[in-house]
Specification:
It is a single chain. The chain is mainly α and 381 residues long. It has two domains: 23-236, no CATH class; 249-284 and 319-380, Cytochrome c-like domain (Cytochrome Bc1 Complex, Chain D, domain 2, Orthogonal Bundle). Helix content is 43%, strand content 1%. The protein has 14 helices and two strands, in the order αααββααααααααααα. A two-stranded antiparallel ribbon has the order 1-2. Helix 3 packs across helix 7, helix 10 packs across helix 14 and helix 13 crosses helix 14. Mean pLDDT is 92; it is low at 1-30.
Length: 381
């Protein structure tokens, strides 16, 4: 009998197979070597950093924060070790049957074991997954450079980020959500400490690392920055005021018209990126967020030369096209209010609302009118 040819593989089969294998390699199994945090040498020439410096950095961070399989909480840091153990380590269950390894199960394929946003499938995604190590998060209700409050991170986990690869984790149990939130904070505090330690060792040639100094100037400031907005919510968290009535066609039309005027105002800076009619076609064409900006050189040749210093290629960002009706920080009116009031941290999207010591280009009531105008565009779309 003549052998029959195998049917062709479905489109994308090879790529999906590679991704599955890569993800399994990251998750690991019983015979895999212990997982390690990747050193954060982004933007640095690794050839200029010797082995003694690398070991000094690794040893310091391991003493303070442990490993991906066995996390530690430095003294004086408000993190729940039991929640961290639930999120950390290989995927499996403990002797009581409780699931462990939640971060590796749900997050590592995109965010990586180190939380660096460079997991096995990260390079295929636009935008890239968040790099937690800088402690910088885009979608918050907090002013200025303040960290997000727990509600902000939880909202992102439960709803996902529309228009991106970040899914909703609504089906997870409350304690699993709590464990993932705690682990993201852990990766952030560890990552900011690592930036300090790398600077100390590489730039100042100070090693072995003084552990007291690392605690005082690295760990504790990073940990405290998470506590400040939680303990001072009135000062740092924006509470949207009562929305002006729009429950009749006349009131709605008046609010949209006022919002259109404010949107076009020069000091509001909306048109510069989003364009005069909100199509995302403003005059600012080459935009980068803070994770990609260091990769951009003054010339294309210099940008290409810098590529070797970073894990992921440079990636531009695009201003939102409101007519698509997709809002990554959430599509509820209050979500849009926060995006306009506090901006989107780490991006060119500025804060439009007042802050302590500054009036801001828009008043709280004016922000509501801009929200209505943006919603009117998305409905047309």
């Amino acid at each position: 009998m003549t052998p029959q040819p195998h049917p062709p593989a479905p489109p994308g089969f090879a790529r999906r197979a590679v991704l599955v294998l890569a993800s399994l390699a990251v998750v690991g199994c019983a015979t895999s070597p212990p997982a390690e945090f990747r050193l954060n040498l982004e933007g640095r020439d690794g050839a200029q950093i010797n082995n003694a410096q690398r070991e000094a950095i690794r040893d310091c961070l391991a003493q303070l924060f442990g490993t991906p399989d066995e996390p530690r909480v430095p003294q004086g840091v408000a993190l729940d070790l039991e929640l961290l153990r639930k999120a950390a380590g290989p995927v499996g269950r403990d002797f009581s049957g409780r699931e462990r390894g939640l971060f590796r199960k749900h997050c590592v394929a995109c965010h990586g074991v180190s939380g660096d946003g460079a997991g096995p499938i990260a390079e295929m995604l636009n935008p890239y997954p968040r790099d937690f190590r800088r402690g910088l998060f885009k979608y918050t209700s907090t002013l200025g450079g303040a960290k997000p409050v727990r509600d902000n991170l939880k909202r992102t986990l439960l709803r996902g980020v529309p228009g991106t690869a970040m899914p909703s984790f609504m089906p997870l149990a409350d304690d699993e959500i709590d464990a993932l939130l705690e682990y993201v904070k852990y990766l952030s505090i560890r990552g900011e400490t690592e930036l300090y330690v790398v600077g100390l060792v590489v730039d100042e040639d100070e090693y072995p690392v003084d552990m007291d100094l690392a605690m005082e100037e690295g760990v504790l400031p990073a940990a405290q920055s998470w506590l400040v907005p939680e303990l001072n919510r009135r000062q740092y968290v924006v509470a949207p005021p009562q929305r002006p009535a729009t429950d009749t066609p006349e009131l709605w039309a008046a609010s949209v018209a006022k919002g259109r005027e404010l949107f076009a105002r020069k000091d509001a800076q909306c048109v510069k990126c989003h364009g005069p009619d909100g199509w995302g076609d403003g005059e600012q064409k080459e935009l980068y967020d803070d994770w990609n900006k260091p990769k951009a050189g003054p010339t294309p040749e210099q940008t290409a030369d810098r590529a070797r210093l970073f894990t992921l290629p440079i990636q531009q960002i695009r201003p939102r096209n409101f007519h698509e009706g997709i809002f990554r920080g959430g599509g509820r009116p209050e979500d849009l209010y926060w995006r306009i009031y506090v901006g989107i941290k780490g991006t060119p999207m500025p804060a439009g609302g007042p802050a302590p010591g500054a009036t801001g280009p828009l008043t709280p009531e004016e922000i509501w009118h801009v929200v209505d105008y943006v919603l009117s565009l998305s409905r047309d779309g």
